[in-house]
Each structure stands twice: as C-alpha cells, then as structure tokens.
Design brief:
The complex is a heterodimer of chains A (293) and B (534). With 293 residues, chain A is α/β, with parallel strands linked by helices. Chain A contains ten helices and twelve strands. In chain B, strand 24 and strand 25 form a beta hairpin. Chain B is α/β, with parallel strands linked by helices and 534 residues long. Chain B is flat. Chain B contains 13 helices and 28 strands. The interface between A and B is medium-sized, with 36 and 31 residues.
C-alpha cells in the first residue's frame, strides 16, 4: 500500500494519479453528507408542515393518498475553489528528497480532484517570477486536465508578484468561493499577507496552508554550516547549535503574527509540515469546505 | 641518551629541570615533526569556516544571530582539535624515543661527584672511553684517595700512587656528601682492589669499572681517495692519544700498507684490521667503517718572481699534506696574470706576491674558491711576534715552534684563526660570495717564520684545507654505551631502592597505550560530532 506519504507519492509522475490515490484513501468509509432542500434532484417526501411553501406540495400524491406531502430535493451546494500556489524560489527547499513545491503540488492536485468529485469548480493561480499564471475556475473535465498539466509543468523560481496580480484574477471571476493559498510565507516584505488581505476583502473564504519543512523548525543542519537563501542567493555562516534558540524565537514570533493576521481577517490558517501525510492536510480542506456549505 | 650522558661530564651542580616526568628523548631531532601539528590546525580552521552549504527558504529569522554564529563553532570544536593535536604530538614524541632516568628526583638541585681511583689513571685506564671523554672535556674529578683532592683529568701527566682498598675509600667519600648528590665512581675492575669488608653504602653509587688491559686501537675515520682508502686509527701511546693515518689500497685481497712511525697495519680476512703496536698486534674492528669519498683539493700557487722560495716551501708542505693522507691535493702553478678564461679549475688559490691579486681572483672567490693571500708589504719593517691559535687551531699552534715576523695588523674583518701575542689578527678568514678569502699577516719563508721549514706548516695547511671543521679536542660523539655498559649499582641503605639508578626507562610502551586511549577519545568525539551533524 503506497499510502499518502508524500515522499512515496513523489515517485509517481502522474499528478492526477497521485491526487486520486490521496483522495480515494481519504474518503474510504466516508459517506457524503448532503443538505436537502429545494433543488432539481429528488431526495425524499415528508408530511406537510405549516409554513412550507405550497408550491412544493406534490398534488399527484395528494390525489392518491389524500394527504399533503412535500417533495424534497438535494440542495445546490457547489462552490468555486481557487487554488493560489506559491511557486517562488524558496519553495524549492527540500526535506528528505521532497521539495516544498512538490508537496504543494500534490496538495493542490488533491484539492482539485476533491473539488471535481464534489462538483465544485476549481481554478489555479501560480505565483512565481514576479507574475501570476492563471487557470480560470471550471468544472469542465478538460479544463481540469489542463490545470493538472499546469501543475505538473510548473517550476518554482523568482519572487512573489505584486499582490494585485494574484488577487485580481479572483475578483474577475466574480463568484464568491473558497481560496486555498499554499505558501511557505517566505516574503521580502508583507506581499503574501497583502495578497491574503486583498483576497479576503473580496469576501472569498480563504484557507491558507503554510508549509514548513521539519528541519526549518529545528534548524537541525549539523554544527557549522553555510546557509544560502534560495531567493536572494545570500549566504551566511551559522553555528546551528548556537543560533537555534534565537532562530526558533524569531520563528515563533513570525507564526504568532501570521496567525493573528489571518484570524483578524477570518482566514483559516493551517500550518503543515511537509512530512505530514497529504490526506491529513486534505481533511482540513474538507472541514473548511463543509463550513462553507 | 647523549644529553643524559653529558649531564655527568660537568662537575658541580646539575639541575634536573626536565619537568615533573624528567622525560628526555633519544632521538630529539624527530621533534621537528611537531611542525605537522599545523596540518590539523589548518584543516580545523578551514572546516570551521562555513562547513557545507545548505539552501534554505529564507535567512530572515537568522538576523541578529550572525556575530555569535561566527565564533561559537571554533569554541565548540576545541576539545576535538585539542585531542587531535595531542594525538599527533604524542605520536611524534614516541618517534623521538622518550625515556626517563629512574632514581632521580625531579625539579631538585642535585650535585654530581665523580671519584676516580688513581689506579685507572695510567695509559691503559685512560684509554677507557668514558675516562677519555672526561679527560678531553677537561673535567674536574676527585681522586679516590685520602683527602679526595680535585684534579683536572687533562692535567694528569703520570698515574698517582695507589691509595688502598676502593670500597672503604668510597664509603669514606660518601660520608662527606649530602643525599642530593649523584655519585659516579670510576675504579679498576681487578678484584684485588675490593678485598676486605664491604659495608652498606649510605647512598646509591654508580660504578664504572675500568679494565686496565691495553686498550685496543679504534677507527677514527676513513677517507677514500682514488684507488686507496686512508684509514685513521687512534691508539693510546702512553698517556698520549695518537692518530695514525695509513693508506690502504682498495684492489686486491692483500693490502700493502705503509709503515708509519712504528705502526703497521695489516688486513687479514675476517673483518678486522691489525695494528702492530709495541711489538704486538692489536685488532681494529672495521665493521663500522664508513669510508668518506673525497676528491682532491685543486690548489693553484701564483707567485711573484721574488717569492719563488716561498712558493717552494708552500708546495713542499702541500705535498706533505697529500702524502700524509686524508686530504688529497693536486698542485698547479698559476701565472700572476692568469686570464679568467684560461684559469685552471681550482678550489684554492695561494697568492704569493706583494701586489694585489688580479681582478679575476675576485670572481674566483665569488664563485666558491678559497683565496689565501699575504697582506700587503708595508714600509715598516716586520717585527717578531708570538702566535696564538684561535678555536680549533689552538692546540695545533701550541705545538709550533718559534715566533713569526708579522706585518702591520690585519684589518679586523672576518673570523680570526691566528693572532699574535697582543691579540691582533695574524690569519683571518672572510666569506665572500660562495667562497672565502684568507689573509695572512706574514710570509711562508724561513726568514719570517721557522714554520716554513718544520712540520708545522703541513699541519696548518692541512687544517685549513679540510672542508670539515678542524679536529679539535675530541669531536667524537659520546656513545651511550660509554656510560651504561659496565656500570654496577649498589643498593642504597637509605632508600632500599631496587631500581637501577640512572638507567633509562623507556616511555615508548606507556606512550603507545596513551596514544591508543587518545585515539579512542578522538574517535568518540568525532563520532558524536558526525552524528550531531547528520
């Protein structure tokens, strides 16, 4: 059983297959919980209650049974999921042979497939090299295939673009939806947080996956190393043992600030280690999806 | 071992300040390998600078950690560095063959007392290597005789009368010493000197027993010249140490030998030479014979017409040097106006003229030649003067008869080899380029110096011609066997120590054990470091 270990899934080249394995594994034994109400697809009959809409009484059944029954159908709950993927150079950071971008790619593919099975539309915005590459949201299978292809071909590099470049395509599509932002939050200033602010201002629901490599948390690179910034190329000699305490304090402050910013904008902030199985990360998506209805 | 041996040669106080271990090295030259300590030091410093490069998403959270992170790694890895340096230093120390002398307290002021029985101060006894070394070093010892008077061994000309039983004299001598004295007794080996009671001695005594049988000659050195080998053999002739040089032809099984002052050297098969001394053959071991090959010294003599006699005497003296062996000489006459291109290949040029040497002689000296030149003849008449040899030439000059007439004092530049009675230089040596220039303040003429017609001139020229330093009092190294062999240690009643006093204890095995322990520690530290790095 391959499971949903991201390191094992990385050996599969077909991104759709990876996503299918993750989603299938996650949904085994799960039952869809659907809302009932007005809609096209029949669900059930129930006795008429005062206050029900008279237009929903099934008059044919009244003719046969001489009782009032109300016809119920599944409610229309489909939404639009916008995936915003950080494809900047810092996402090339590897842990145990798996880069952050690979993890983000698997996560995005899983979200897309999950959305497809839920009947939701899915779109993609790739943020890299100072520009935003956009795949508009769609339920169409061919467009989803194109989205998967875009994910497969994407190569991380450069820096985060202007926040407007990322948020504008989401505004253009009009429909309020769920925006899933997958990033490592390595930014020069506050451009990623500005992007979140702009997206949240469009009344989208926002779910942020903050990807962290395990050794980023512990600074566990040995004794004396030279650390190189993936985005700027700057190097610095570091005694990891000596610098660890200060580093972790700074990192904790960074996390606290992110959580605070996100909470103030009603953004769902999820910090995920790249060693975490993908299905566990996707469950958080489902929780957010259910909250949207 | 050599330094340990020489600590006995000086009389008076000896301070043992080799540290708490009193450790010495038999091969101290090996300590030059300690320079290898720089290798792990450099590697460590290089590795401390940065280590491997790891790419990370951002360095933002490391801001403010920079200063600390640059210096802390060197401090953290010091234990490993120190262990590695200690490991290397210990390895070098083991190579240098460490040892310590047992039975000596360290860090305390100790005195050495050497008692010599008068019986051994005859010709046979002075041939003993230890006594010979003490004598040639001018050591002061005490006679093992009532009164225990101090004498300089090199001033003993005749053996004092025997003083009686050795043991009781030693007991009496030790009573006059304190406990912080190392005592060496040099006594005859014959049993008749130890008759009577032998009470326990109050302190450890190091014995050196001297057999008074006639000493065997020993090889000093051998010089290979052309098809012959010049063997220089030392032999005790009465109280005088003599060196006999004999030419031995290389080719053929039987070696025709030259008869030299009554000594006759023959070489029967079996690895021994035989030297005929006073009517009996003495064996000379040649197992350690090392023949030094030597090319002839090419000497050119340039002289003015009025110095033809000087040139004849110098030539004769140089031929005598060549005939005596040891220093081969090739003589040639050189015109005073010799052009540079036409000059024969020379090692030495002796310039006998009142005129300044020609210009080409300067380039000759710069190129590595030796120029012996008389100082310029001044108008002032020469005056007779005593001659004093400096340094290694001192004993040589002391044997030379008469005064020399000298010119005006030489310029003070260069090393003074000979000087007059007033201390003014008479023969100086000054380096110039690769060669040297010898300036002589007299003439090689019988009217100026009786040297010219005596055996002193060949001896002087030979000393000057030898490339090696002139043989002085005794340049032979003092072998460890001269001290250790034949020593007998008496048990001290006060200490009751069963250890051999003064015998060296090798520290090699403890050193290897310590080396293995250090290596284990080093591996442990390195493993922990590698694991933390992983």
């Amino acid at each position: 059983m391959l499971g949903t270990d991201p390191r094992l899934l990385a050996s599969i080249r077909d991104l759709r297959l990876v996503a299918g394995r993750v989603v299938d594994g996650m949904l085994v034994g799960a039952h869809a919980s659907r809302r009932v109400g007005a809609g096209i697809e029949f669900s059930q009959y129930r006795s008429y209650q005062p206050g029900d809409d008279l237009r929903r009484i099934d008059w044919k059944l009244y003719g046969r049974s001489d009782r009032y029954f109300v016809r119920e159908s599944e409610a229309e709950t489909s939404i639009t999921i916008h995936l915003v993927l950080d494809a900047t150079a810092s996402m090339r950071l590897e842990y145990d042979g798996l880069s952050k971008f690979d993890y983000a790619r698997f996560l995005a593919a899983g979200c897309t497939l999950l959305a497809q099975r839920q009947g939701d539309a899915a779109g993609l915005v790739l943020a890299h090299d100072g520009m935003a590459e956009v795949q508009p949201a769609s339920r169409d299978r061919s467009r989803l295939s194109r989205l998967f292809h875009l994910l497969e071909q994407a190569k991380p590099g450069g820096r985060w673009p202007d926040p407007a470049l990322v948020s504008q395509p989401l505004a253009a599509q009009g429909q309020r939806g769920l925006v899933i932002l997958i990033t490592d939050f390595h930014e020069d200033g506050i451009e990623v947080r500005e992007t979140i602010r702009a997206i949240a201002a469009m009344r989208h629901d926002v779910l942020v996956f903050h990807l962290i490599a395990p050794d980023e948390l512990t600074l566990d690179f040995g004794e004396v190393v030279t650390l190189e910034d993936l985005e700027t190329g700057a190097q610095r000699e570091v005694d990891c043992g000596g610098a660890r305490a200060g580093y972790q304090a700074s990192l904790a402050e960074h996390f606290r600030r992110l959580e605070s910013d996100c909470a103030s904008r009603l953004v769902d902030y999820q910090r995920i280690s790249t060693a975490t199985p993908l299905d566990r990360a996707l469950r958080r998506l489902l929780v957010a999806r259910q909250r949207l209805g | 071992m050599r330094s340990a041996a020489f600590s006995w040669l000086g009389s008076g106080s000896v301070r043992h300040d080799q540290g708490s271990l009193g450790m010495r090295f038999a091969q101290p030259w090996s300590l030059w390998l300690l320079a290898a300590l720089a290798v792990p030091l450099v590697i460590h410093l290089r590795k401390s600078r940065g280590g491997r490069v790891i790419r990370v998403g951002s360095l933002r959270h490391l801001a403010g950690q920079d200063a600390m992170s640059r210096w802390v790694p060197r401090l953290r890895e010091w234990p490993l560095l120190l262990v590695r340096l200690a490991l290397l230093a210990l390895f070098v120390a083991i190579l240098a063959d460490p040892y310590r002398e047992a039975g000596r307290s360290s860090g305390t002021e100790r005195r050495a007392a050497i008692f010599v029985a008068p019986e051994v101060l005859d010709s046979a006894g002075l041939a003993d290597p230890l006594l010979d070394s003490l004598r040639t070093a001018g050591s002061t010892v005490r006679l093992l005789a009532p009164g225990f008077v101090e004498v300089r061994l090199d001033s003993v000309s005749a053996a004092p009368a025997s003083a009686g039983p050795v043991w009781s004299l030693v007991r009496e001598a030790l009573d006059s010493l304190d406990g912080a004295t190392d005592v060496l007794v040099i006594a005859p080996a014959e049993a008749e000197h130890y008759r009577g009671s032998r009470p326990v001695l109050p302190m450890p005594v190091r014995w050196h027993l001297v057999s008074r049988s006639p000493a065997d000659p020993w090889l000093v050195r051998a010089v290979g010249i052309g098809d012959s080998v010049h063997v220089i053999v030392a032999v005790m002739d009465g109280l005088r140490l003599r060196e006999v040089t004999m030419a031995v032809r290389r080719a053929g099984g039987t070696i025709p030998l030259t008869d030299n002052e009554g000594y006759f050297l023959s070489a029967p098969p079996g690895g021994w030479l035989r030297l005929l001394v006073s009517g009996s053959f003495r064996p000379v071991p040649i197992d350690s014979l090392r023949v030094t090959e030597r090319a002839p010294v090419r000497v050119g003599i340039a002289h003015a017409a009025d110095r033809a006699i000087d040139a004849r005497y110098v030539s004769a003296a140089l031929r005598a040097v060549a005939a005596a062996g040891g220093v081969p000489v090739e003589l040639s006459a050189v015109p005073l106006t010799q052009a540079p291109d036409g000059a024969p290949a020379l090692d030495w040029l002796i310039w006998l003229s009142s005129a300044e040497p020609s210009e080409w002689s300067r380039s000759f000296v710069e190129g590595g030649g030796t120029l012996l030149v008389e100082s310029r003849l001044l108008d002032a008449p020469p005056r007779p003067s005593e001659v004093v040899g400096e340094g290694a030439l001192a004993p040589l000059v002391a044997a030379m008869p008469g005064k020399v007439h000298r010119r005006e004092p030489l310029p003070g530049a260069g090393a003074v080899l000979l000087s007059d009675g007033a201390g003014a230089p008479l023969l100086t040596s000054q380096a110039a380029g690769k060669g040297r220039r010898l300036l002589f303040g007299s003439r090689f003429h019988p009217a100026w110096s009786p040297w010219a017609v005596g055996p002193a001139l060949p001896a002087l020229l030979r000393a000057l011609l030898e490339a090696a330093p002139v043989r002085g009092i005794d340049p032979r190294p003092l072998a460890s066997g001269q001290i250790v062999t034949g020593s007998i240690v008496t048990r001290s009643a006060a200490e009751g120590s069963s250890r051999a006093a003064g015998s060296p204890l090798s520290l090699t095995v403890p050193g290897i054990i310590l080396l293995l322990a250090l290596w284990t520690v080093e591996r442990l530290l390195a493993f922990r470091r590698a694991r933390s790095a992983a």
